[in-house]
Write a structure and sequence with these properties.
By secondary structure, this protein is an alpha/beta fold. The protein has 8 helices and 10 strands. α1 crosses α5.
Length: 197
């Protein structure tokens, strides 16, 4: 299984490099990246803004996982998240299912990825939902690769999956929708979860 992990954003609403912010003693991106690496044969990490800082902080994982962690750079991250999605998905070996995941989701663990894998079966994809809110990572069948690559840059994940045979995975676990976009969402994360366990 391959994971495309999106880490190219400018974090405009956060007004600083949110992926480098500390959580449970490590940068947010480290939590997301480690979970992806533990559950995937290959992780394609898409960088953009803050490329140098991200590469520096993930250096130990690059050394530990070697060729299993592949970095690709989005030279035009201002074109939006879907441009990073396309750049990452273009690197996936054809006929291989893949996850699309967010690097600012530090509560996602190996177990979250593993819960989705057996659900793909004959579906085009599997998407987790916390109550009525769609979350990440999204598991995509290999057939979705070309669909993603041919879609307009303005496409959202919700639009991409419309009309496809998508299996819905309903859950009461808020980790699936806990991504850090604003100072208040970061503070809520720290208040609720920043305890070493």
């Amino acid at each position: 299984m391959v994971t495309v992990l999106l880490a190219a954003g400018k974090a405009t609403r956060m007004k600083e490099a949110k992926l480098l912010l500390p959580f449970r003693g490590e940068a947010i991106i480290i939590h997301a990246l480690r979970a992806a690496l533990q559950s995937s044969s290959t992780v394609i990490l898409v960088t953009g803004w803050y490329e140098d800082q991200i590469e520096a902080i993930i250096a130990p994982l690059l050394k530990q996982y070697g060729d299993a962690l592949y970095l690709v750079h989005n030279n035009k991250p201002n074109q939006g998240q879907f441009s990073s999605t396309q750049i990452g998905v273009a690197q996936v070996t054809p006929n291989t299912p893949f996850f699309i995941a967010l690097a600012d989701a530090p509560l996602i663990k190996k177990e979250h990825y593993e819960a989705l894998k057996p659900l793909l079966e004959n579906y085009d994809g599997v998407r987790p939902f916390f109550h009525t809110t769609p979350g990440h990572p999204v598991l995509c069948a290999a057939a979705l690769q070309q669909t993603i690559l041919e879609a307009p840059l303005s496409t959202t994940m919700r639009e991409l999956l419309e009309g496809k045979n998508i299996r819905r995975f309903d859950t009461d676990d808020p980790a699936w929708i806990t991504d850090i976009d604003t100072p208040s969402s970061y503070q809520k994360l720290i208040n609720a979860y920043d305890v070493l366990t």
